[in-house]
Sequence to fold (387 residues):
Amino acid sequence: MENLINAIDKIVEGQVFKIVISNKKNKDEKYNKININLKESKNKIYYQVEKYTDKQVFHENIEIEDLRDYLLDYMENSYKQLAAWSENNTFDLKISKKGKVFLGKKNADNSNLVNKDHNKKKNYILEEGMIIEPLIDLGVFTKEGKVVKSKYDKYKQINRFVEIIDDEIKKNDYKELTILDFGCGKSYLTFILYYYFVEIKKINVKMIGLDLKEDVIEKCNEVAKRYKYDNLHFELGDINGYKYNNKVDMVITLHACDTATDYALYNAIKWNAKMIFSVPCCQHELNHQMKPESLNILTKYGIVQERVAALMTDAVRGNLLEAVGYKTQLLEFIDISHSPKNILIRASKANISKQKVEKSLDEVNKLMQEFNFNPTLYNLLKNDNLI
Fold:
């Protein structure tokens, strides 16, 4: 049993894209053979299983992380042979009548066997083969720069975020940028962005990560030093009261909870930042305040009220950013099946017409009047005579 487990582990770790299970131990076994192929849809990658009887084929899908147990179950109980293919290796597993396990492995270029319909290569900004230390430490890349199959969704999400930033960056020939990352936490995304700016875009950046936890800041500074990211450092501080007297070109705020996002946006506006990227989180404020004048149906059901309040919060933020001179978009950051907190606010400094400013403010005021709420960002900007 232990030898079989070790053999299966080596096959799974080889990141195989095609598997054939055959040679039944018992003639009464229902399926003559089982084919397993790696597939990629719009939202995720998975393995598709085809199980063959004499007259039919049965299909099912399994998650990447379930492959090991799936293979182990069939090879332990029902079959004596398994062949598998990765891009660089071919595996041949055989179990003798006495239960001895034999695993053969040979180097081979199997790239021509990849199912082209389901594995079309997308040109990501952070490509396979790049040695990106934060992605390796995060477990998304192997030490050789290959994507770990079970982390492919995470790899796509990170690239999606970088692409959203890149869409703005490539509009101008930036030579240097000062970037503040509010509520950076111990996420490696800050380090990944630094790599993108410095190594890929060749921009001279000064990047500051801000967080409330002293141990997090200490560890992040140690990691930055280990990576030799000389112009990236982390500071202890609250988004609400943080002071920075030099120019700021970009503000990033990911998953700042509730009104912390509003304070981050307010600071970005005060600094006259060229670009703002914000993924809000936990929008409780308007949910607690909502008392509609006539649209009571939207607060009749708690789950509806919660979601409507979150969407209204971001709609108000988007309009207020327009009102103070930012071209603003609300984008899908990741697919909603992965997280309901999937809206990213992208804002860039622009010449917004007086008519559009007035319309944006009017829409906010009408919404506030209908639902009797009082958003933090509106109050901050109003009290500072910015709107």
Remarks:
- Residues 302-323 form the longest helix (22 residues).
- The chain is about 35% helix and 25% strand.
